[in-house]
Amino acid sequence: MGATTPADQAAKSKTLFTNVHVFDGVHKKRIENAYVLVEGNLIKQISAQKITADGAMVIDGGGRTMTPGFIAAHEHLIGQMPFGDIFTQDTRYYAYVATQTVNTYLMKGYTTVRDVAGNTYSLKKAIDRGYVVGPRIYPSGPMISQTAGHADHRHDSEESQLIDGPWDPMVRYGDMAIVDGVPEMLKAVRENLRRGASQIKIAVGGGTGSYADPLEVVEFTPEEIRAAVQATADFGTYVLAHVYNNDGIRRAIDNGVKSIEHANLVDEETLRCMKEKNVWLSPQIIVFTFIPHGYTEDQANKHRQAYAGIDNMFKICKKIGFTKIVFGSDIITDPETLEHINDEFKHRAKWFTPAEILRQATANGAELLAMSGPKNPYPGKLGVIEEGAYADLLLINGNPLEDISVLTKPEENLVLIMKDGKIYKNTLYERTQNNK
């Protein structure tokens, strides 16, 4: 017995998994008693027949379930700290905390994360270069909002921007951006793309954590949204929008937005419109099951309002056959809750089958991420177990296709975590195969 470090794995070009039951990210039925060969960072072969690979490290899965690494599509890697720290600490403190955050995600089985608001460019670079252990990151850069919108966290004691008053630390540090008008929107989008954003996030409605905007308000004019979409499309990628209400969703999708984040207050007509236009839905549940630390009573009431809409939203999805749904948590400012991020799997079981949930967390997420086109930082296949795909793999005690709750205990039930062909957790026996 013994763990395998990424450095150890880097020296071994082949890993052969035997006796595993494979959920490939797409199909409801597992490939039983399979062999999976990894060469370098790619899946080389999958077979129900015996595979031999001279010199390969062999890991007997012991009849466990193998799945693709999970994809979390709406996360905040910067800011997993109390609100007080967000507004008083410097960027280096932000970064040190983020290194722990990304390690938490990887150890919970998330090999890829779409970060939807934050200055994560250097964090991504440090992970890709091996200085920090964490998942692949698809960065959006700072979320772009209007004045009095979801990114505007100024208090009444702060001077107005009409007389050049100061922005709050999240804007100054590059985790949020506030713009008004088409020229400012174009500049913000292009600046994010310059830094390495793989997609762009704008706020088109109110939020629970912001002060000035009820959930019902609509933000950004059609012209501003179209400018964001056009500038982003010119780089071959897409815009996602934070919004809860129908009017905001309609304005977003009518002007080219391809992914709606939250949508808790959506109605059937609007969801049907999203389905017709092939727009993705990126919902979350766990973040609404508690009141985030530091919320005022007004913010808490908005949070409860958002939670109350989830049941109706998912019932409509099931009724109309809306399946372009991805997985995510939206947890922010709460590292303790982040430790229980996998409870999101259990929460979704009220509306979806285990296979549907696992597909949301794997192949669906990968399909959405691939829409970043030439801005895709990892242009190979993610979210599936098939030949030629990235070797992002999990070995799980039990069968999550029958009991999704096994995923809520990753410390004991995720026995192996592989990202990009490197093993970051392994509690199983391994040996070297030699056919000579």
TrEMBL record:
Entry annotated with the keyword Hydrolase: yes
A GO MF term: hydrolase activity, acting on carbon-nitrogen (but not peptide) bonds
Signal peptide (residue range): none
UniProt keywords, alphabetically: Dipeptidase, Hydrolase, Protease
Keyword Acyltransferase: no
Domain Amidohydrolase-related: 65-423
EC top class, as a word: hydrolase
Coiled-coil ranges (or none): none
Protein's UniProt name: Prolidase
